[in-house]
What we know:
Elements: E1 4-5, E2 13-14, E3 19-20, E4 26-27, H1 28-31, H2 50-53, H3 55-90, H4 104-108, H5 113-133
Antiparallel strand pairs: 1-2, 3-4
Amino acid sequence: MPGFRHPIMHCTDACGEMTYGAECTGDCAKKCAGQDCIERVEGTCPSQSIWRSNWWLVALVLLIIPIIILARVSGRKAREQYEIAEAIEIFGGEDNADNVEVTQSEISKPKSLVSQQTEISRIFESKTSLSTSV
């Protein structure tokens, strides 16, 4: 009979600490990661908290939020740098980069592509006309 010692001799001596099963041969320390079993027949282990058993999974879930925030911030900065580089390219490359002062807010405003290119051309024309008149 599992959970007792010497059941053949009709002894009802229950399994001791850290043992379970038939003739108390099971080891609770191995089965329950160093803890004692909560019952001696099947060797049921005590329930573990999610913080103890899967701490790495909890840490991974908690790290997802900062990773998403960092990705969005770096994506915005990269997009802004791309827009500035694109504006410099539209204005004629690096040679005219000193003459053209396009503010970031003028480029980053949400607009359609056609209206944005029209406004960039207008700004470029006004800047070049000022530089040629000097």
